[in-house]
Amino acid sequence: QAVAVGKLAGSDLLSVVAGIGNNPMLPAACWAIPILLALDALATCAFCCACCCTACNGKQLRCCRRLALLLLMMVLQVPLLYGYHQLSLAWEAQPGWLFFVAPLKANLVALDAETGKTRWSY
Description:
The chain crosses the membrane at residues 31-55, 67-84. Keywords: Membrane, Transmembrane, Transmembrane helix. By secondary structure, the chain is α+β, with helices and mostly antiparallel strands. It folds into two domains: 1-24 and 104-122, no CATH class; 28-103. The chain has helices spanning 28-56, 60-90, 96-99, and strands spanning 3-7, 14-21, 106-112, 118-121. A four-stranded antiparallel β-sheet has the order 1-2-3-4, with no helix packed on it. The protein is rod-shaped, with a radius of gyration of 26 Å.
């Protein structure tokens, strides 16, 4: 959190203004990565089972198409993840359930630079 030192309005004395509270967690995109990896693992298992079934029936070309579709799906996750991150910034992480966030308790305080006494708190 940022700290600023300077003169407050109405006083010639130096003050320190700082934020006090919990730091936020990782960006929403970081929380989405394990979910996407789990979906990739499930999709890989499903595609492999489907390929085995079609290979047994002698339709190996369809198996190659399924693998290409799986690779395309994995490649498209990168721009989707970037879009999800940008959306969380634009919507200011609201609603919280969609972006894995909760309200944080925090205060903004101004302290006298020499004595440390609280001038104001918000």
